[in-house]
């Protein structure tokens, strides 16, 4: 059975350098994949309207991990000098990243996905 990261479309803003992920157990947000929660497929499917509504999307862990790149340590809280580079991995907030994430969402969403990233059109209203 696959595991998923839940991507917060709503909490990722165009000024953010990285795409926002949910922490474990629906408890907050983060950018680094090491701090993100992994949600099993049964849990996500049981509440698609919550985890994959369009405000959020559930994407397989292996897709997100393949997209993650080491981020700038100054961008993150609780980072030490001896931390391995793998602990700094985050998904860049780019058009291409959003296209790939949306293409791999677990299911079609109830609401349109309105991703914000540098260079995206401004939303109306």
Explain what you see.
The mean pLDDT is 92. The protein is globular and about 40 Å long. The longest helix has 9 residues, at 95-103. It has one domain (3-103). The chain contains 4 helices and 7 strands. It has a 3-stranded antiparallel β-sheet. A two-stranded antiparallel ribbon has the order 2-3. Strands 6-7 form a two-stranded antiparallel sheet. With 125 residues, the chain is an alpha+beta fold.
Residue share in helix: 10-25%
Mean pLDDT: 92
Radius of gyration: 14 Å
- Give the uncertain stretches in residue-range form: none
Number of helical stretches of at least 4 residues: 4
List the strand order in the largest sheet.
Answer: 4-1-5
* Binned strand content: 15-25%
Order of helices and strands: EEEEHHEHEEH
Query: What would you call the shape?
Result: globular
Quickly count the domains.
1
Structural class: alpha+beta
Distance between the termini: 40 Å
Tally the beta strands: 7
Offer a quick outline of the entry:
The chain is an alpha+beta fold.
SSE blueprint:
Layout lengths: L2 E6 L12 E2 L6 E2 L8 E2 H6 L1 H4 L4 E5 H7 L1 E2 L18 E2 L4 H9 L22
Antiparallel strand pairs: 1-4, 1-5, 2-3, 6-7
Which key features would you list for this structure?
single chain, alpha+beta, 3-stranded antiparallel beta sheet, two-stranded antiparallel ribbon, globular
């Amino acid at each position: 059975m696959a595991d998923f990261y839940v991507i917060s479309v709503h909490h990722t803003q165009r000024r953010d350098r990285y795409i926002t992920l949910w922490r474990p157990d629906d408890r907050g947000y983060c950018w680094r994949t090491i701090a993100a929660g992994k949600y099993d497929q049964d849990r996500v499917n049981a509440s698609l309207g919550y985890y994959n509504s369009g405000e959020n999307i559930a994407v397989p862990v292996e897709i997100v991990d393949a997209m993650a790149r080491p981020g700038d340590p100054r961008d993150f809280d609780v980072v030490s000098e001896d931390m391995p580079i793998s602990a700094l991995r985050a998904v860049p907030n780019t058009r291409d990243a959003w296209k790939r994430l949306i293409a791999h969402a677990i299911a079609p969403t109830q609401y349109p996905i309105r991703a914000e990233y540098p260079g995206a059109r401004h939303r109306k209203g």
